[in-house]
Amino acid sequence: MSRARFIPLIVFALIVVAVAWRLAVPRDDRVASRLEGQQLPSFALPPALLGKSGLRSGDLAQGTPRLLNIFASWCVPCAAEAPALMELMRRGVAIDAIAIRDRPEDVAVFLAQHGDPFTRIGSDAGSRVQIALGSSGVPETFVIDGRGVIRAQHIGPIMPQDVAGILMALEDAK
Amino acid sequence: MIAEAGLAALWLAAALAALQLGLALGIGGAQGKAIASIRGVAVAQGMLSLAAFVALIILFVRTDLSVLLVAENSHANKPWLYRFAGTWGNHEGSMLLWVSVLAIAGAVVALFERRLDERSLSATLAAQAALALGFFAFLLFASNPFARLNPAPLEGRGLNPLLQDPGLAFHPPTLYFGYVGLSVAFSLAVGALVTRQVGPALARAMRPWVLGAWVLLTLGITAGSYWAYYELGWGGWWFWDPVENASLMPWLAATALLHSLNVMAARGGLRAWTMMLALVAFSMSMVGTFLVRSGILTSVHAFAVDPTRGSFILVLLTLYIGAALALFALRIGHVKEGTPFDPVSREGALVANNLFLSVILGIVLVGTLYPLIAEAVTGEKLSVGPPYFNATAGPLALILAALMMIGPQLRWRQDRAAIVPRLAPGVVIAIATLVATFLLAPDITLLARLGLALGAGLVPASLAPLLGRSLRRTPLAIWGMCIAHAGVAVALIGMACDSAFTREKLTTALPGEQVGVGPWVVEMRTISPVAGPNWTALEAELRASRGGGVSILRPQSRFFTEPVTTTSEAAIETVWNGQLYAVLGAQDVATGRWQIRLWWKPFVTLIWLGGVLIALGGLFALIGRWWRGYRTRRRLSEAGS
User: What is the pTM of this model?
Assistant: First the structure.
């Protein structure tokens, strides 16, 4: 009993330290990809629908910065960001996409409804490439520079107020 | 005017708490001599806190938008009940409720506690005043509920639609009354440690508070679990969410405390354990409430972190809990232990109960705080979910259930008589059930199988202490114990059935199509719009049948405008042997098909029925103890006159 009686006090002190740390370092729920600043993993995906080309990692390293959008036809926030992607395309941004766990007919309906800003769309039926990219959900958008290096990552839908930031990131990647 | 009056009452109450602390510490006269004035001050402090809370209720019911808190959390279009309940549906209001209950509990102790000597009582009231004072300061300096907003807006912002539910309106107050009831046990323990008067009289003074708090916590957790079950539309009844854990941890500590208090009151034993548990139970209430309320732990219930409030609360908790645990460490060496006992005895069984409950408490605490600690140490973000909790707490809970079959049937101090005949009925039924599950349901998990067997055996074992007694003359407290233990058995059977036999179907359907789940055939009839007081919804009409009768289920997908939110209202059909649970999802844009999710959950209702039985048992024990005490006092006074 002589030493044991101090145990509760010590356990409590540890809890206090942990909580104090949390107050000093506010929580950041963003799960950022560890690949930011690194070369894209190499991949080659088949086309996600007829009449469109598939996507290889080499397609993203052709001298000019591009966006890589991770989306799915079954994802509601992806529909929400569609207008912002169309706006980026109108401003001359090249966008490639990877459709996650999707079917060609569903992708076709999605693009018919929300517009098609994509140059190429690869189909990632098993989410393998998504995981290799360090992406934790849909939609996500990566800014890739001309040498195929991931320069920035946007998690969640791109809303109208995010467009300017994306354009700046593309400018920085030049 | 009402807001200013409320604020004034709050300031006065805080001043009285300071005065109470000063008087009890011996300022203005010898320590313990001032007990009459301390009593008066404690009562006045309780009344003023209540007045402040009533003022806030009035502001919310009238939707006085010139008060910032009301404008941010209420809306004139809300039904009356939710304007009323909105008072505590936000940070400041719930803190005011917390402090008011704390002050009122102090007043009740001051008025009615006659079992303790005056020094211990005044030390207890000093502790209670110190607790109240800190939280008054927190309200006045960091969370003023009465702050004005100028100019007043035309419309308020509304209450989170998930919270617009009659069950939830009364769920937080029930838990708060439970938490704060434990504050009295905390203050009594602190008082007794200060004056070194740790003995059976203290246990008897503490018991009604712990019993009452435990009944309310049990009801609160049961209601919260049912709310999550039908309102969130996920079909589960417990998610090991930090908020749920925050209410479970004080309950585990209070359950252990309740049992060790009985040893201390009856035999004078387990004094150190009991003091520790009394401190831990309320500490867990504070830690749980504030960690969650301040948003330090991630949760579906999380509020935004406000660094000022977070630091304020951390300082308060460190002071209170740290001081109490330090006092425990310094004083507990001087506390005498009671009469010794054999390992095989009622005391021995209750020690085992305490150990297992404390280990489960430790497991839940580690699992809840682990993400925070891991991120602090390694920077890695992770979350701890059901797989950890089920795999660790589950088996321990089953061992505890097995011990429950034995413990209540043992005698105090030592039990040398043959134990086997007393245990036979429960053990035979448990083994028979186990064999039956192997034959009838070969595919279920081991945990569910053992849960069914132990639950079935625990029903007769819980009622065994009533055997051979005259039922009419059996003390109400014994009845209470048997009912509560049988309630655990019933809940255990419900949990095991839910985990073993639930059938789930996630599919899409068009009106006119049929879906099968378990023994049910569900036909989707129509999808139609409906409107409520402050929402509109799409409602599906589902026609469910299994052989005979037909029932209609109407799950809804609701859209609230203030604030803009969508919630799904599950439709639940309760039959004698379970519930059919239906959720309406979104419409598939391409095909026009509607997502529906169906569950058939046999005997799931037993989970909450068990919870209610546990609380009922506690209530019986509370009434029984009170009645005995009242009768004894009356006899003594009659003998005296």
Answer: 0.83
